[in-house]
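User: Some background: our group keeps a shared notebook of sequences we're curious about, and every so often someone picks one and asks for a predicted structure to add to the entry. Today it's my turn. The entry only has the sequence so far, pasted here. Could you supply the structure so I can complete it?
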Amino acid sequence: MRRDPPIFYDHKIETMSRNDLDALQLTRLKWQVDRCYRRSDFYRERFDAAGVSATDIKTVDDIRKFPFVQKEELREEQAQHPFLGRFTVAPEAAFREVHPSTGTTGTPVNTIWGATDVQYITEVTARTLWSIGVRPGDVLQNAFAYGLWVAGLAVHYAGAKIGCLVIPIGAALTERQIDYMVRLKSTVLVATPSYAIYLAEQLKAHNYSISDINLRIGCFGGEPGTEVPATRRTIESGLGIDAYDYYGLAEIGPTFASECTYKAGLHWSEDLHLIEVIDPETQEPVPEGEVGVLVITHLERRATPMIRYWTNDLVRLDRSPCPCGRTHARSPEGILGRADDMIVFMGVNFYPIQVEQVVRSFEELSPEYRIRLTHDTSTHRDICTISVELEQKKMLQEQVSILQVRTANALREALGFRPVVEFVDQGSLERTEFKAKRVIEERPAFAKKL
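Assistant: Of course. Here's the predicted structure to add to the notebook entry:
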């Protein structure tokens, strides 16, 4: 008799009660903090300066006594103690892979995967892929970058672990991506949201429709956006799939949080990671449901564990069980932006994702956009120009003018000020196979920050 595949990759772990989960976290937290203190000069110096040690941890909330770790501190540590710094904990004999952090600015931070780290990252990535519906026999088209960017390898290992046919194409070769979709009948796509949108555009440009491909689901990370309703609709309609959000970062793990089929937010793997949401001003935890900075502590990472790593990503936390039956905490709407991506304009603070939500809500516009910030020396005023592409080429000038006003009004309502809206030809804004950089900062007072 044929049986349907189980809903959960690891039923016991994913449906663990909060009391059991808290107990597991406490045991692993004590172990991790103790080994970091004993084996890492970096952590020992920080803990001594704060006057704390593993003996201070009586409950998981006691992690709040420990200092945060900022990415810039890791950079400085590796600059002073090249090449890896002193936050490596496992012995060199256990080192298996080195992976740098990614991003559009700053010196990369090198992290090490030990032998057991490779196993744990493979397992947690397999768990995330399973939660969106990946199953043995799927043809997984892996359009995450390979090589030094860690996410490609994690998905590759996990896909093989599940029993998929993995296409290790990486984030390039767009024509071949389409060829594999059409001829090899890929069923799962993993990529950045920007690249997924671009692939949908190129599929159409090559005179293919969604009836010519066999994709059914996709997981998209590396940048925020999948949980923006308009972005999700764009990906899903362009590729004929269910699109799910994916999250990770090199310092913690490349692919350790994803949505489930209910699309009710990112599920955190709390058996492996202690999750906090912190007010950036007070540096204290925010009430459940409020927005703060995501802070993560490794509970199982062996080679380069992070204790209270300040991600700069903005989230809200929901600890109620998901309709899918998973009990680990979730972040509804995923990553809401980055604290360091906040744009200050004429006394108003806003995030690029707010612009994305507006632009991608208009069917007449392409999903691409650019935010350009300049300063007019003659008027001594800053100018915010948002460039968007017209999706429909055959529009009367009167229609274009009306659309421009509608777009500007929607942006004013979302941002709190009225930007300059510039329409450009469809396809004129650069597409990307990796992480999109959509903010161009040219104001002298702010340019050095980017």
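Suggested note for the entry: Residues 254 and 377 are 44 Å apart (CA to CA). Residues 1-339 form a domain with the Rossmann fold fold (CATH 3.40.50.12780).
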